[in-house]
Structure formats: structure tokens, C-alpha cells
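Hi support team,

I submitted a single chain yesterday and got back a structure, but I'm not sure I'm reading the C-alpha cell output correctly. Could someone confirm the output below corresponds to the sequence I sent? I've pasted both exactly as they appear in my results page.

Thanks,
R.
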Amino acid sequence: MPISEALTPEQLAPSIFDLAGRRIVVTGASRGLGRQLAIGLAAFGATVACVARDQAALDDTVAAIVANGGAAAAYAADLGDADTVAALVDRIAGDLGGIDVLVNNAGVDHDSPIEETSLETWERIIDVNNRSVFLLLQAASPHLRASGGHGKVINVASVLGTVAMRDNTAYVMSKHAIVGLTKSVALEWGRQGVQVNALCPGFLVTDMTIHSVSDEASSKWITSRTPMGRWGQPSDFVGAAVFLASRASDFMTGQTLYVDGGWTAQ
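Hi R., thanks for writing in. Yes, this is the structure output for that exact sequence:
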């Protein structure tokens, strides 16, 4: 194969980040990071299927996208049931004419020492953070492979998928699992035209972290440990998600992209 030493004008153009025509599924799109990712991806031209359990909140996300000139639809579903997930993915693919990008963002957290973490809590975190991702990957696989080499998966993990914190064992384990799953599936799907990468947020302001944001001691500890000296906002992650969903990342797979204000550089 000949070596290409120069980028073409097309490769240098902003259109390399254009998501027009891309059909993207975003889970956990009713609030927080998922909502912002859905809105941001739609702003770059994608048609977004917004998935979560809360129909009213999903409708708000879709309304925000449409008000900005974008295209989206809401799909309320519980992602813990295999039959429900399979039917949901087929329904979305039928409605949109296929699926090009899957953004696995839905997740829950829980803070407690391992001795005080009930089995019920442990299983709930694993069900939402891991089981749902596994089921969605299986169900979306044929649709992603059929997307003509444009298939991409963005698994939203966390800086706690690489480092750890005390009193957060179940969540830390679940996010480490997402990073490992990303690498493994990337190896399986690489020759089938599907790229699989992980996006790892640092500490950001969402409904899930508002208790720490509003607690002066906790917030000070987070910002003092973050080299950029502040909490992240959901909007800080849109650019990275657009990159991973676009042609700009076509030769990138099995990677973990950190958007953490420098947290993991320490």
C-alpha cells in the first residue's frame, strides 16, 4: 500500500467532524451528561435516539434538540431486561433506518464502604453500569456492522475506571469493567468496521454529584485535586464525544479518552 504523506483538503476541513446523516443512540439522555451529549451530537447534524426511563425528562431533551434545529426522538425503556433491550434497539433501527453510533452513558453511583454495601445495591450498580452495556452491545452489533464502516461505540466510563477512591467500591469496579470491556470488544469488532472507545469524565456537576458539589469540604477537595481547579460541566464533554462519533476518529479504537481537568495526569 502506498504511503500518503499529506492530508487531503477533506481531511483538514471542519467537515471531518460533521455528523450529518449519523444515527446515534444515547442512553441516560434524560439528564446530566447524557442530556448534554444528546443535544451536542444533534447540533453537529446527527439524528439522536434519546433513551432513559423518564419519559417526561426525555421529552424535554428532545424538545431542546428540536428547538435548536436538530432531529431526535425519545424512547423510554428499562435497560436491565434483555428482551426489552433487543426490542428497543430493533425499534430504533427501524425508525431511523439503522444505527451508526451507540453511546452507552446510563449509569448510577453509590457511596459506602464495602462492608456497608448491600448485595442489592451492588447488583443494582452492576445491572445499570455493566449489564445494560453488555445487552446494548449485543443487540446493536448487527446494526453497527451494517453501517458501512461508520459504526462506532462510545462507552462512558469515568476517571474511576482507572484510579480508585475509598468508599466507592461497587462504582469503581463497574467503571473499571467498562474500560476493559471497551478494549476487548474493540479487538473483536476492529476488522468489521466498528470502532469502540471509552470516554472518561472527571468530576462534573450533575444530579448525581450535586450533594458533593454543595458540600463545601467535598467540593474543595475535588477542586484542589483537579489541576484545572474546577468541577467539569456536562458541556465540557461534547467536543470529545463529537470527535469519537465522527470520521476524525476512524483509526482510533480500544482507547480511553480522559476529559478530567488533568485528574489522571497526577
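A quick pointer for reading it: The beta strands are 23-27, 47-52, 71-76, 101-104, 151-156, 194-201, 256-259. Let us know if anything else looks off.

Best,
Support desk
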